[in-house]
Amino acid sequence: MAFVRNLWYVAAWSHDVPAGKPVGVEVLGEPLVLYRRGDGGLTAFDDRCPHRLAPLSLGRVEGDDLRCMYHGLRFAPDGRCVELPGSAKPPARLAVRTFPVVERWSWIWVWPGDPAKADPARVPRAFGLEDPDWVYRSGALDYAADYELLNDNLCDLSHLDFVHEKSLGWASGSKWSNDSPRISAEDDGLRIERWFRDHPIMGSQPQRVDTWSSYRYVLPGLFLLTTQAFPVGTAEASGLGPPDGKPIFHRIDQQSVTPIGVGRSRYLWALGFPRAIATPAFLEGAYQVTRKSFDEDKRIIEAQQRIWERLPPERKPSAIPQDQAPAMFRRLVSQRLADETS
After folding, report:
1. Residues 6+ apart with CB under 8 A from 1
2. CATH code for the structural domain at 134-338
3. How would residue 204 be classed by pLDDT, with cut points 50, 70 and 90?
4. What are the CA-CA distances from residue 55 to residues 14, 31, 52, 232 (Å)?
5. In this structure, what DSSP letter does residue 178 have?
6. How distant is the alpha carbon of residue 133 from its chain centre?
7. Residues in Cβ contact with 93 at an 8 Å cutoff, skipping those fewer than 6 apart
8. Is the pLDDT of residue 174 over 60?
C-alpha cells in the first residue's frame, strides 16, 4: 500500500513523550524515536543506530543529544554522531536520519516526506487539551486495519445507530442513518454538519433538545467534532444552519488516524467538556462510554479488514447513499497520492 508522505502526521500525544525519555513510534512503516532536548523542544530520529541498527528508543537522553546504549554512539539533534567511544573523530557516515517534527494542539506531528516541503504552517488546526475553561480525557488505540477503513468509519457516522446501539445512548435514538448530513468539500478535507431535532438530551433524561453536530475530517485523517444542544426549535430558527447563542450542552472531540504500516493504524482521541459541567464523575462516565464505543468500532473494523484481505480483486463492495463522504475523502487521498508520484 502506498501512503501520502508529504503531510504532517500525528505520532503521539504531547504527554506521551516526557523529558529525559526517548519514545519509539511508527509512522507510515518508519520506526522513529522522539525525545525532548534540554529546552523541551523535540527531535525525531530514525529509530535505528547506523552502526548495528539497535533501536535508539532504548537509548539515553543526554542534554540535547541521544546516546545509543548498545555501543555508546552519541548523536546531536541534527543527526550527526558526535561521540564514538574509542575514536577521536566519528566518521560522517554514522549520521542518523532526522525527521521534521512540531508540537501543536497537544499532539506531536512528524513529516515523513520530503523535508524541504515540511512547512509548520500546514499543520492542521485542532482543539488541543490546554484550554483552562475545558476539561479533557484522552486515549489511544491500535488497530489491525488499514487507515482507509478508519477514515471511512469516521466520515460516515450512520453506523452509530447499529455498531453503537447500546453504548452511545442518545446517538442511537437520533437516527443518524436516516438523516442525511450537509457535506461540504474543503481544500484539505470535508465539513459534515447536521441537526437532530426534538430528542432526549442524553440517555433516559426527559429534557428534549435540538442538537447541532458539526465536524471537519481533514488530511491526513483528523476528526474534529463539535456537539452543541439547544432548546427545541433552535434548528428551525437557525434555518437549519449553524446556530447562534450559548448551548445548553457542549462537547468537543479531537481524534487522529495515523497509518503505522500496511494493515496497521494508530488512533489517538480525546473528549472535552466545559469545566462548569465536567465533574469527575461526569467526565469518567463519558470517558468510559466513549472508550467502549471505540472498542465496538475496533471489533467490527478489524473483522472487516480480515475479509478485505481475502477479497478477490474482481469483487467490489456495493455502494449505498451513506458512502458519499467516505468516497469523497478517498478521492482526495488518491489525488494527493497521484500528485506525489507524478
Report:
1. 146, 262, 263
2. 3.90.380.10
3. low
4. 21, 9, 9, 57
5. T
6. 23
7. 50
8. no
How far is 228 from 181, CA to CA, in rounded Å? 16
Contacts of 116 (CB under 8 A, 6+ apart): none
Q: How far apart are CA 227 and CA 338, in angstroms?
A: 35
The structural domains of the chain, with segments of one domain joined by +, span 9-122, 134-338
For 12, list phi and psi in degrees, rounded to 5: -170, 160
Span 107-113, mean pLDDT? 98
Nearest to 84 by CA among 97, 98, 65: 65
C-alpha cell at 21: 525519555
Cell of 218: 481533514
C-alpha to C-alpha distances, 281 to 170, 253, 285, 287, nearest whole angstrom? 19, 19, 6, 10
Residue 7 class from Cβ within 10 Å (0-12 exposed, 13-18 middle, 19+ buried)?
Answer: buried
**For the whole model, what pTM was predicted?**
0.94
Angle at alpha carbon of residue 135, lines to 134 and 138, rounded to 5° = 125
CA separation for the pair 342, 336 (Å, rounded):
10
Contact 43, 98 (CB under 8 A): yes
How would you list the strands of the sheet with 107-110, edge to edge? Answer: 9-13, 107-110, 101-104
User: Which cell goes with 215?
Assistant: 465536524
At the top level of CATH, the class of 9-122 is mainly beta
C-alpha cell at 245: 447563542
CA-CA distances (angstroms) from residue 44 to 107, 168, 202, 254, 257? 14, 38, 43, 23, 19
Q: What is the pLDDT of residue 172?
A: 46
